[in-house]
Amino acid sequence: MWNELLYAFQEVATLPNFLAMFAGIWGGVIIGAIPGMTGTMAVTLALPFTFYLSPVTSILLLVALYKGSTYGGSISAILIKTPGTASAACTVLDGYPMARAGKGGKALNMALISSCIGDFISNISLFFLAIPLATFALRVGPPEFFMLMAFSLTIVASISGRSLVLGIISACLGLLLATVGEDMYGSFRFALSEDMKSGLGMVPVLIGLFALPELIKMIVFRPEDNAAAMKLGDNRLTLAEFRGSIKSICRGSIIGVILGAIPGIGPSTAAFFSYSEARRTSKNGDKFGEGELEGIAASESANNGACGATMIPLLALGVPGDVITGVMLGAFMIHGLTPGPLLFQNNLGDVYALFIGILFSSVFLFVAGKATAGAFTKISRIPQTLLLPCILILCVYGIYSIGASPFDVTVLLVMGVVGFAMMLLNIPAAPFLIAFILGPMFEDNMRRSLAISRGDLGVFFQSWISWGFFALTVLFVILTIRREWKKWRDNRDATNASAH
What we know:
Blueprint: H1 2-12, H2 15-33, H3 39-46, H4 55-80, H5 92-100, H6 104-138, H7 142-153, H8 164-178, E1 181-182, E2 188-189, H9 202-221, H10 227-230, H11 239-260, H12 266-281, H13 293-309, H14 311-317, H15 323-334, H16 341-346, H17 348-377, H18 384-403, H19 406-424, H20 429-453, H21 464-499
Antiparallel strand pairs: 1-2
């Protein structure tokens, strides 16, 4: 084994491999920071260039693009409230308030450190736990997946802000929009036009919901430039601040690894799940959504922790963990590598080289993040009269570049108006988004389970995994009801005390 590891290290430690990883990380960070330019697009566009590279170099380039774009999405999310990627949507909740308070650099540093730690932990998990976690993932069928989605939807209670009722209304609207298009049996719902038959794209909805309402607000109300946002202030992340977030970083990394190893979930769900848990357990939970570093740490550690974990089912079972690893599967096949158990028997040297290279990519991610953080924080110095048109152009261009679809641009603009109306009515946008993301998976797995059991609801309680998620769901609902009752009672007592 040690001889194979040494040979793999020698194979990785070459100039072409380091250049490929460095270019992939930098390219991924830049593409991820541009609204609408997703990691999937970056990996897909880079795939033809890997035909003439060695297998290890090709895979390392694609993995580096994936990781760089996942972190890059947090840059625009923090500085201009425009998530570059769907997995950075949760980072907006605390990152943008910090940027408006003149702490954009501090938020970026926390996002970078959390991303690198989550990425490193996922890489270690990939190295040691690929087979066990992939075996566990195989036991998660439609009934277990449904229970997991039901539990994940309880996240809405944690990200609803001051009003749980408004949060539930927002989530219901998200679930309603998630039903637009074709269902699993070929029926069309709310298909008012030919374009709507394929549903609403997640990226146009995401950017329209978070970015455009802020632009409309600035245009309609014409606020003066925030002087605090024009000053970068003290952007250094102190040791005390890091220690205060280390539990959330470790927890988020583990959540990212576990959920990332289950095919179909991906970094977005992991980020919201981690954020919810951090808010529930943190002593500063009431400050989440107002500019809390721990919220950024929880989100970024989870979405980057899921990146390496999505490779686990791909390498161990030949099953892509998400869309991007599905593209990577094509790269493996092009170079004569067949992911699955036989890969570890026939190409063990290449597997070890890939693992070692992925560990190196964590270091490159940190270097690239530190190098770009100072440059990106200068965005906050740009006057709003120049910044707003640039953001709008980037949003429209990024959305149109995905599929050259005018309909996606229309969805972007309509969701911007909807998001602005929700802002005026104090309806939180985060529950809408998480319900929109989880809704299709929730519905599809429920219908698949009932199709398997021919309508027997007992199918949802046939495994210990289902029972575990069901128990967690019930527990979380009870705790939420208890918290809301206590909040109502405290408000009532305060009102009575002030009346006397």
